[in-house]
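Bumping my old thread because nobody answered last time. Still need a sequence for this structure:
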């Protein structure tokens, strides 16, 4: 019987790895060219709804259209100096309760609604400064102080492991990647499911007497910034978005739950941001961000501009490279940009 030492085949194994790496590099380069050809700016404005339909199908949001589900639930759970606080539960399917915190500022009879999305390891309570130190830079509280009604949804991203930071630990274990893999076997994804949850929340909350249904915005950081882009691209009821610390070249950060079948040829961050046009979109990346390199985000930001120009509204897209880290910008410029999209009482 032939025997060999373990290292005999290593040169072939090495070439295999090198070949795979080279192939992916080539596909990334081809993907950029394919996306450019797939969505030419010259015809984009006339075909945006066709692109949106393809985007929704790529993520698998359409897989939930036939699902029946119980009625939403809303209950008052407390209040603080800024607002009354409600727990809202909507159903994505009969089995899946999707929940979040609704915060209504004191003295507000009717106001715009802003979806405020936490990031990885986060919760509605954390991003609303109800418990634990965080990197949200008072995102929710700043919105409340400006008279916005705020809904903060819970994604499958809370912290359940001991890690070196100050986020509260929740002993409810989950496997986000595993669930995403299972969903992708059936033509959908965890991103699609959670976008659907946000969309169902908007449907319910828009019917409340205190919510100005024509004035809906969304803001988020990190995973929350990602969901801001991707939910706004799918749901045109969101009139303005403010995405922090997430936008980038997805070739550089191909996280498994941020990748979808053929997305490299169709929709990555720049194309998803384009689907937000002509609505107002503010994208911020930090020079000191330790998670995402701002330098690889800049060329992709430039690519978005031509799609907004196709609608003759280049000023509706703002790309801000700021001197900060993995957080929400300290100034209110992004918030004010978002608010400027809301219709005022006298304009209605």
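Sorry it took so long. Here it is:
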């Amino acid at each position: 019987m032939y025997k060999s030492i373990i290292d005999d085949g290593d040169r072939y194994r090495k070439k295999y790895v090198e070949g795979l790496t080279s192939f992916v590099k080539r596909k990334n380069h081809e993907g950029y060219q394919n996306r450019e050809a797939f969505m030419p700016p010259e015809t984009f404005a006339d075909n945006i709804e066709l692109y949106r339909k393809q985007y929704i199908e790529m993520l698998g949001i359409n897989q939930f259209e036939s699902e029946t589900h119980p009625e939403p639930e809303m209950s008052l759970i407390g209040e603080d100096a800024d607002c009354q606080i409600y727990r809202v539960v909507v159903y994505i399917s009969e089995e899946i309760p999707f929940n979040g915190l609704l915060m209504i500022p004191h003295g507000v009879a009717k106001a715009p609604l802003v979806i405020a999305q936490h990031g990885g390891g986060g919760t509605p309570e954390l991003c609303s400064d109800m418990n634990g130190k965080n990197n949200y830079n008072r995102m929710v509280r700043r919105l409340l102080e400006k008279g916005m009604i705020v809904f903060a949804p819970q994604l499958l991203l809370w912290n359940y492991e001991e890690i070196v930071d100050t986020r509260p630990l929740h002993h409810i274990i989950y496997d986000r990647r595993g669930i995403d893999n299972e969903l992708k076997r059936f033509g959908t994804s965890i991103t699609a499911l959670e976008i659907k949850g946000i969309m169902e929340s908007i449907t319910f909350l828009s019917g409340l007497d205190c919510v100005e249904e024509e004035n809906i915005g969304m803001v988020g950081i990190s995973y929350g910034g990602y969901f801001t882009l991707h939910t706004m691209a799918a749901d045109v009821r969101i009139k303005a978005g403010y995405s922090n610390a997430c936008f980038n070249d997805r070739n550089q950060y191909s996280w498994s739950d941020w990748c979808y079948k053929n997305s490299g040829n169709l929709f990555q961050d720049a194309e998803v941001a384009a689907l937000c046009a002509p609505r107002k979109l503010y994208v911020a990346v930090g020079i000191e961000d330790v998670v995402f390199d701002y330098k690889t985000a800049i060329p992709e930001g430039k690519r978005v501009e031509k799609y907004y120009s196709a609608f003759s509204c280049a000023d509706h897209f703002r790309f801000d490279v700021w001197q900060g880290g993995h957080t929400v910008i300290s100034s209110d410029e992004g918030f004010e940009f978002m608010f400027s999209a809301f219709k005022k009482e006298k304009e209605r």
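The beta strands are 73-79, 83-91, 97-105, 111-117, 149-153, 211-221, 240-244, 280-286, 317-322. Let me know if any region looks off to you.
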